[in-house]
Amino acid sequence: MNTHINIRRKGLSVLLALMIGTTALSFSACDKESADKSTSQDISSDESLPDTTASSADPEDTSSLQDNDKTDSDSIKVAVAWSNVPDSYSYTSTLKTVEETAKSADVELVVLDMVRPDYLEYENNELKKEYKDEHGILSSQAAKLVKTNGWAGSDADKVMEDVDCIIFPGGWDISPTLYYNEQPWHGIEEDGDFSAERDVSDYILLKYCIDNNIPTLCICRGMQMLSVVSGADMIQDIGTWFKEKGIDYDNEHRDPEKKDLVPHPADIVRDTQLYEILGTESIDGAPSWHHQLVGSIDDTALTVNAYTTTQGEQIIEGVERADRSFCIGVQFHPEVAVRKNADKEDNAADFMDYDKAMSLFYALEEAASENDSEAIQKAA
Prior knowledge:
It is built from nine helices and 14 strands. By secondary structure, the chain is of the alpha/beta class.
């Protein structure tokens, strides 16, 4: 089988190389630096940041861009959910990782458009102002509509047309109004950027994928959204949570200067899908960039598949849905480990190895292939 990658774009304006080879860089991994600030903050100019110009994707090369009607129907169509910050390091790393899997699999990368419900109004691709506050947090009323309706009355089925599997990548904090048990905003101004549009899109789309048993991999913010959709309790700020316990937090899960991801160990729970994929009880150098976490999964369909122990407190690093064929979330960033190793970045050795990180994406595509095979057998 020939190995190739077709880039299919569905309604989303993306640079030819999907930002992989550009120099515009900002971190948005379960954090938030607004897109219009990304070129002015230290995180986009510090010399310790990865040089995205060294990526294998050529922004002038359009040979991989093909029309929808020219794609190979036998290829696995791997979708990446819409992001409000498509130039972020974690998002472009996700695209690059799918490109890496195409070296040994017939894969088509599908960058999805925003999902919209018909019960909320939009102007110029943004929700009307009455649906969000000055920080971009979804209003309580709008959040209740989303939680009540799920993907009913949305274009989720159209956006997901012909897609075999999906990745929900990292990004900004999730509006606390969307939590199963709604919370007021944490009030930390430096962590005060939200995207109501993405929150609506991700919540609806993830609910659609769960309901339709579409193989799904959720990374960082994605794992948190999987937890929110599944009814888990959330903790909005790790530092505040530790302070309430009388502990001086050591910032193990996010660089306080917000310059790069930080590596830390993670324990993998036996008898979980994640354990079957990684084949180990622990990993070193899990790439981390988050200040929020999943608090409790009690009374949900979730199973914890990974955790860390930070200053004596157990923190959930991964969850999965045993009631679905493949629905896995990890709080860490395997796509960043792939990119750092593939691009031979200076600190690549500090993070989990290439093969371990890639195994999650191969497993997702294998699950999609198995789903296709089962569908063909049923049709026959």
